[in-house]
Write a structure and sequence with these properties.
The chain is α/β, with parallel strands linked by helices. The strands form 3 sheets. A 4-stranded mixed sheet has the order 1-2-4-3. The chain is built from 6 helices and 11 strands. A hairpin with a 2-residue loop joins strand 7 and strand 8. Helix 3 (123-150) packs across helix 4 and helix 4 (188-203) crosses helix 5 (209-218). The protein folds into 3 domains: 9-72, no CATH class; 86-128, no CATH class; 131-232, Zincin-like (2-Layer Sandwich), CATH 3.30.2010. The relative contact order is 0.10.
Length: 238
């Protein structure tokens, strides 16, 4: 007897959800994107009826999040790295100054982001490389500070592009943590929150009571930091 292929989308009332299956997930989760896109992630093998029941129960929350994003207006336009444009770094904002024959393609000097004028369309990779380098340094500093307090140190740390919705990830089985290179656009205390969050996952893989108790033991104000990160980090600007 042939098995039905897993569904790729789910329609509940007037809303369409993209379905993403994972053999590693244990719970069902819903993501509402800034542009209104809807994704439901589920463990492989979950019956479609159970999936629909979960989504239907979450519809009030989904509609509320969509309304919040609509109230924010359209997301900011991607950076073009032109003269006078503003780039964020560690919670502060710096204007771009284009330079002829600078010593480095991208640098933060004199309160300005100095970018080589002749980069033209190649500016973004150079800017991303600059941020990635600074993110590695800042994350390493934060891990060195907080790993002893959490009681766990990763065997591997990576900084890369994690997509539009993730600041950090953790693979507790491999003792590996990863962070988005754009994390250093945020203030230092929010960088620290993300680092502590992922370090805590090395010991507590799921967002249960024990996980949040561990985070709170290191950062008592974690709820405030999480709320600020959600507000300031709704969009990846670069």
């Amino acid at each position: 007897m042939l098995r039905r292929p897993p569904i790729e989308s789910l329609v509940v009332d007037d809303l369409v959800f993209t379905v993403r299956w994972s053999r590693r997930r244990r719970t069902i989760g819903i993501t509402v994107a800034r542009d209104g896109g809807l994704v439901v992630a589920a463990p492989a093998g979950v019956p479609a009826r159970k999936l629909e029941g979960f989504v239907r129960a979450k519809l009030p929350w989904v509609r509320r999040k969509r309304a919040e994003f609509e109230a924010l207006g359209p997301p900011p336009r991607p950076a073009t790295f032109g003269e006078g444009e503003i780039l964020p770094y560690l919670g502060r904002r710096y204007r771009i100054a284009l330079a002829d024959d600078p010593p480095a393609p991208v640098a933060l000097r004199g309160g300005r982001f100095q970018i080589a004028r002749d980069l033209d369309g190649r500016a973004r990779p150079e800017v991303a490389a600059w941020y990635t380098s600074r993110a590695r340094e800042r994350v390493a500093h934060s891990i060195a500070r907080f790993a002893p307090q959490v009681g766990a140190a990763p065997a591997t740390v990576v900084v890369r592009d994690l997509g539009k919705r993730r600041w950090g990830v953790c693979d507790h089985r491999a003792s590996k943590v990863g962070f988005h290179w754009q994390l250093v656009t945020q203030p230092p205390d929010l960088v620290d929150y993300v680092v502590v969050h992922e370090l805590a996952h090395l010991l507590e893989p799921h967002h249960g009571a024990a996980f949040w108790e561990l985070v709170a033991s290191v950062l008592p104000d974690w709820k405030l930091r999480r709320r600020r990160l959600r507000e300031s980090g709704r969009d990846l600007l670069l």
